[in-house]
Design goal:
Blueprint (H helix, E strand, L loop, with lengths): L10 E5 L1 H4 L5 E5 L8 E4 L6 E5 L4 E3 L3 E4 L3 E6 L12 E3 L5 E3 L9 H4 E10 L2 E4 L3 E6 L7 E2 L14 E2 L14 E2 L2 E2 L7
Parallel strand pairs: 4-12
Antiparallel strand pairs: 1-2, 3-6, 5-9, 7-10, 8-9, 10-11, 10-12, 13-14, 15-16
């Protein structure tokens, strides 16, 4: 029985099956109320995306906690419960979601490229994290190249760096070089 109750307790009505058949039995019991110190809260509600290398795996803590300790659970964004998949996905007792390293042939978009959320629940209530996008990327060799351009001497030429689409989201151009010498904007030569 929860010791924390407001002065005016809320009561639930429990009617036994016997009372429905003519015998009167009425049981009143107070609803359990959270203590003033009971809380459930977000530790980090800004976590929106986790991108990880398939060769390393990832550990994603549930961004919530509580006092008394909150029960932490993970779900797919569809609301489906998360279940353990041996050597692929595991939810630890402390509420941490772990995706293990995997080979490209073991990629499963349902697990490795999906939206997840977690909930925290205790006597103070239940909260739900925002959706967290979990996405695996593969380490693969790639080559960037400069798109061929033609220009007349003295005219302006615009060069474009071609990055393979499989890595475009994770690669950005930080400098240009000609024969290992950095090209600085506005400098002729």
């Amino acid at each position: 029985m929860n010791a924390c109750r407001p002065l005016q307790a809320l009561w639930t009505l429990r009617v036994s099956l016997a009372s429905l058949t003519g015998l009167s039995a009425l049981l009143l019991s107070p609803l359990p109320q959270p203590c003033p110190e009971d809380v459930v809260y977000f530790v980090n509600d800004s976590l929106q995306q986790v991108t990880f290398s398939s060769s390393v795996g990832v550990v994603v803590p549930c961004p919530a906690a509580g006092s008394p300790s909150a029960a932490l659970r993970w779900y797919l964004a569809t609301g489906d419960d998360i279940y353990d998949v041996p050597h692929i996905r595991h939810v630890h007792a402390n509420g941490t979601l772990q995706l293990y390293p995997f080979s490209p042939s073991a990629f499963n978009s349902f697990i490795h490229d999906n939206d997840y959320f977690c909930t925290a629940e205790n006597a103070a209530g239940k909260i739900r994290s925002p959706n967290i996008r979990v996405k695996a990327v593969f380490r693969e060799p790639y080559t960037v190249r400069v798109e061929d351009q033609r220009s007349m001497r003295g005219s302006v030429a615009v060069f474009k760096c071609l990055i393979p689409s499989s890595v475009q989201e994770y690669v950005s151009v930080v400098s240009w070089e000609k024969d290992t010498v950095a090209i600085v904007p506005g400098k002729k030569g």
